[in-house]
Design a protein that fits this description.
Dimeric_a/b-barrel, alpha+beta, four-stranded antiparallel beta sheet, DUF1330 domain-containing protein, globular, Alpha-Beta Plaits, 121 residues
Length: 121
């Protein structure tokens, strides 16, 4: 099942430092062994539909959760990571995607059933 590395980065007050640009130039070489590919990278066009969002969003897809985790903890990426984290604040997480044929209505039905079967407290 596809997994995703998602980074929510606060934009710096000034131009990006050379270290971050170097990070951007080198990150793909750390992704290649794990079949990672950028799906969203800063998105030059963003339309905020709810709330506020003045940050950058990065989404990288991987074939599996294990490949995503292995990439993040790889020696090559860990060596490169401080070039971003020393200059940009943000959050990063790994998440599993949904399986083929996933239906939100089926998930809602299962939750309703579980909640109705739970004793009242």
């Amino acid at each position: 099942m596809t997994a995703y590395a998602i980074a929510h980065l606060r934009r710096p007050a000034a131009d990006l430092p050379d270290e971050v640009l170097d990070y951007m130039e080198r990150i793909q070489s750390t992704l290649d062994p794990y079949q990672g590919r950028f799906l969203v990278h800063g998105a030059p066009r963003t339309e905020v539909l709810e709330g506020t969002f003045d940050q950058a969003l990065v989404i990288i897809g991987f074939p599996t959760f294990d490949q995503a985790r292995d990439w993040y903890h790889s020696t090559a990426y860990q060596r490169l990571l401080p070039q971003r984290t020393d200059h940009l604040d943000g959050d990063c997480l790994l998440v599993d995607g949904v399986p083929p044929g996933y239906e939100a209505a089926a998930t809602a039905a299962a939750i309703r059933e579980a909640q109705s079967a739970a004793p009242d407290t």
